[in-house]
Amino acid sequence: MRTIAYLIFTSLMLVLTGCDNLSTNSTNISGEWLIPKDQIFDGGPGKDGIPALITPHFAAVSSTSYLNNDDLVLIIKVGDEVRIYPHSILDWHEIINDEISGTKFAITYCPLTGTGIAWNRVINGKETTFGVSGLLYNSNLIPYDRATNSNWSQMKLLSVNGSLLGFVVNTLPLIETSWLTAKQVFPSAKVVTTSTGYSRSYGTYPYGDYKTNHGLLLFPVSPDDSRLPRKERVLGVIVNNETRAYRFKENGLNIDLISDVVGEKSITVINSKSRNFIAAYQNELEDGSAVSLSPLQNELSIIMIDKNGNKYNLFGEVIDGPKQGMKLKQVTTMVAYWFAWGAFYPNTSIAN
């Protein structure tokens, strides 16, 4: 608790005293970096001051009672197993190292930029775990890998310092949604429990009104793109180095579908503001066959159907139809606060 309180106090003092008084920690930012050193800031708690989890404990959805229906969670699916990682845990730990059926990954989450991304923990052929360096760039988490001590930019998806400089991380599909939607769609999932080995106020958001106060940034951001409200959550899409931001659309309880072309790839973006999910997929199955998708309403476990009768779940998997067992090709995405997406990808377009 003290480390988080220190982070908030330090950050607020930095804001109050002005950007001219901000300083970096020269000990932590020695060597070559792929990001400007003068834009790297020490968040306060220090390296591992925010403790990443290594062996998370899980419980059934039916026995999980510490979450409210509108709490945000991250969901991963590997094979037939689905696991849920609540923001209320990640707000205090930022990284959860995990493994499902031999697939080794880390759920990385930055509360200040609102970004949750699943990273493959096998880097350059070697397994590692990730920890919290305590450093920030554009308010965003800089994890480090424990195998080489290299530093990584979460939103840039690559190593920005150390012996793995320039290595790009492989990501896994991750869905962000509300606890209500998660337990309705995946009632058999496993949920991270509060039995973390640490004493934290998991029912309390540690950053005050940060999520809703568009005027509050705890650290400098460059550029500060004013095209959208700073804390609006958008889906950022990256295809062949082209980036685009998609906004949640008001459509009642219905699912909204957008067909688009990004980076010369045909994609589908599907979202429901009321159900609190947004995701993107290539319009192509793993076997190379092209598909044309339409939304399915009133069936949360099935959200799309193609012209051949294949029905798809939130992870783009065909769960019924002639192509059952196949899935749509992955698109690199992340849900982020607009200010963060605009800062990391300043040439981004915004979908109509």
TrEMBL record:
Domain of life of the native organism: Bacteria
Entries under InterPro entries matching the protein: DUF3179
Name assigned to this protein: DUF3179 domain-containing protein
Species this protein is from: Ignavibacterium album (strain DSM 19864 / JCM 16511 / NBRC 101810 / Mat9-16)
